Amino acid sequence: MTSEIHRWLRRDPDPETRSELQRLLECNDQKELEQRFSGRLAFGTAGLRGVVGAGPNRMNRLVIQETATGLAQYLLAQQVNAHSRGVVIGYDGRPDSRQFAEDTAAVLTAHGIPVYLTVRVAPTPLVAFGVRHLNAAAGVVVTASHNPPQYNGFKVYWGNGAQIIPPHDKGIASQIDAAARSELSMMALDLAQESGLLTMLDSTFYQDYRQALGRSPLLSNHTTPEAISLAYTAMHGVGAEMAEALLKDAGFHQVYSVAAQREPDGRFPTVHFPNPEEPGAMDLVIAEAAKYQATLAVANDPDADRLAVAARTEDGHYQMLTGDQVGVLLGHYLLSRTTPSQSLVGTTVVSSSLLQRIAHSAGAHYYQTLTGFKWLTNVAMEKQSDERRFLFAYEEALGYTVGNLVWDKDGLSALVAFAQLTAELASKGLTLWDRLESLYRQHGLHLNAQHSIALSPGAPAIGDALRAAPPQQIAGEPITATTDLKRATIQYSDGRQEAVNLPGSDVLIYQLASGDRVVVRPSGTEPKIKCYYEVVETVQEQESLEQAQQRATARMSELIAAHQSSLG
Prior knowledge:
568 residues; alpha/beta; 6-stranded mixed β-sheet
């Protein structure tokens, strides 16, 4: 390991990380050195993400330069026109992001690949938009999204504007490994600009995205925007300027931004964990909403590709909507504004099944994928046609895409669409809660929950154990169908079997006789499994929604307790 450390010190272009590593050597901190040099930060379908620091198992300038070299080599091998199409690069407001983006540009241009680099921080959806808008061969966003401040990341889009999927992830990873053993080439950015290899994307590019959303027929519902008001937070991220502009364009003038969280600040000083799903993360925007009695309290995560919503209740308090509730409301709303029989909507295997019921009821086309927006958008591209146009997709982790301007989750266009939905309801004297109740009464109250179960280190793989001894019931309910994505089959309790057209994945889905569902997804990196539960409760005509909710909540508690107990 010592020789590897000294080789790293010779290659590292950053005096700060060199000094950090030198201090670890002087202190003989073998545990920390082992962690940093025991392996390399893995490159996958989400690119890279990790803690910033020295060493190959951390995010730093040398890792970025090696990663960019691997990407350049892979692009040149896979795309004959990469030299003419180029790569779009953007970055968030974290302390190292601009430097990492510039290093990426220096590497790509040294390989003769043109680069379009944003002049300032950019929301992730703008880069995804820019790949297709500029007909680029790929896109890169330097961002760690909603991870804590010590993290950063390197996210890659392919030339279709969607996140990379296999085999590109493995192909790029292989080239990165080769780059780590080779000399690296860099081009000074001023020279790259002089030679025409570097184009700076100025305010015109940002306006291109803004105007494209403004022209979208899916975002053209200007029904009484003055009927509602919104409190908004960018959560110290990069979304505020564009979010406020888009809302203003759509006629929403009662928008109150949380000043303390409006400007990009990668230290995230007012929020412990900058993920809107985390407890306390929405406190400031809800307080701002209460101050003005706003209809909605809304948040983008720090790179603005996700959207979180809290809505005012009848008693004046604010209640968070789940990602599934926002997704179902948006899906139903967008289907009402199009021709359903010509529309394609989708969710993931762990998201609520309510959108599927709504889509089938409306006569729309529905599809389902593995978790992750890389699947939702790449599969949508395969399934859409002139008779079946892509409309909307979402995942329960606050990700939504409205139309095909951005082939990834986009918290900005989703924000505008959700505000327009809320305003349309208000013009009819209705609220979001009213619309949810009507959907629950028509299709059943769908309650979803997620729980992780820790396993003992070294414990046998739970997925294999469940396949070896398949359960016949969960919480006293017979299992009517088991979907095994590793074997790509659906096994029915009556003996029938069907093939599943999804990529292989260690996921088991149990459908119960009651209509409830349990999804088991073992972690590939930790001794734990993730379990997703869905309870569907019929709302009787004469009863209140609260009564049905109480039954569903009680059933959910019993289901989770019984299932976790069965897993030991």
